[in-house]
Amino acid sequence: MVMRFVVTLALGVLILTPDVEAATFKTEKGDISVDIIADGLARPWAIDFLPDKRMIVTERGGRMRIVSPDGKKSAAIKGVPGVDVGGQGGLLDVAVHPDFAQNRLIYWSFSEAGKGGNSTAVARGRLSADGKALDDVKVIFSQKPKVRSNLHFGSRLVFDGKGHLFVTLGERSAEKFRSQAQELDSHLGKVVRLMEDGSVPKDNPFVGKEDALPEIWSYGHRNPQAAAINPATGALWEIEHGPMGGDEINLPEPGKNYGWPVVSYGVNYDGTPVGSGKSEAPGMENPIYQWTPVIAPSGMAFYTGDSFPQWKGNLFVGGLRAEALVRLELDGAKVTHEERLLKELGMRIRDVAQGPDGALYVVTDASDGQILRISPATP
User: Fold this and answer.
1) Is the pTM of this model over 0.85?
2) Which domain of life, per UniProt (predicted)?
3) Closest of 264, 310, 312 to residue 286, by C-alpha
């Protein structure tokens, strides 16, 4: 049963409690209503929707579950391979194939253990008719090389509607690895583009180039944990974590270099300059927008629904450090205005998705994580 909640202020802390009335919050474009669809999720990382309006959700510890519109949670779906859980690693993104109604394919990313350490991997499987298991499971991509780190897995999955799958990959954080974001014989710090079966598209920018991995689409990325296709243009957008300052929105184009770790709008966590100490350099693409201080972005969605006509065409971004859902107004590839929603809740927002009902759904990054539904407030 969907829970509604009220927000109580106690000792300076906001507390959510079930109630018969939804919580209502003011925004610049009108009041919104927020319902708890489900709680009791262990570090949920991603959410996507099945054609029947049920949600499929990953929990970082390795569990994938289905949640009905009324909040009923399934048992763990069987068939998910083991993941290398630790730090930021575990079971990460999930994406329902655009033709799921015909093929029942589910894709997911996870931290995969192997010789030399671990890396981001992508698998796909066919969801059984009863929704209880994944069959024909196959790992279709593994980031190279595997390294010993529990940070910066990147990991968002995006179908482009043209038979391709984009995967964002972190540079694994440590200084001894991060330079590989600039090296084309490594998947670290890259966006890769695959066919839906994991094979390499023939028109990828580095196909046939010596000492370059053919899956690479763009490079020089730090830790992209948000990505989506802009429905107005069909272009891929990604958002990546900066260090201390310099979270970036980029529009990754084939073969282009996005600068990390040579340039950055931020500095290292010890206050020293990143790379050249500059924010831009010839031959390296500038972000279209950056945050300093950081919001720690994770998950994004372009709003196209009818429930919030005043938000059509806006971009919504989950904020972990910001503890907010960030709303951005756009003019083409330019951000013209920013608003931060749900700040009153004090929750780390891990992912955001538009539901088939036109509402927005977010998952909160917590040991007792929640799925929240955002809809227009009833007058």
Assistant:
1) yes
2) Bacteria
3) 264
Residue 370, domain CATH: 2.120.10.30
CA distance 320 to 299: 10
Token pair recorded at residue 247: 């979270």
Active site residues: 152
**Cα 87 to Cα 74: distance, rounded to the nearest angstrom:** 26
Structural domain count, the chain:
1
Round the CA-based radius of gyration of the chain to a whole number and report it. Answer: 20
Q: Alpha-carbon distance 286 to 219, whole Å?
A: 13
Could you list the residue range(s) of the whole structural domain that residue 20 is in? 3-376
Q: Which residues, at least 6 apart from 226, have a Cβ–Cβ distance to it below 8 Å?
A: 156, 238, 239, 240, 297, 298, 299, 300, 317, 318
Question: How would you label 56-81 residue by residue, b for 16+ Cβ within 10 Å and e otherwise?
Answer: bbbbbebbbbbbebebebbeebebbb
For residue range 262-298, list pLDDT tens digits in order. Answer: 999 999 999 999 999 999 999 999 999 999 999 999 9
Residue 145: burial class (beta carbons within 10 Å; 0-12, 13-18, 19+): middle
- Amino acid, res. 261: P
The residue with greater pLDDT, 22 or 31, is 31
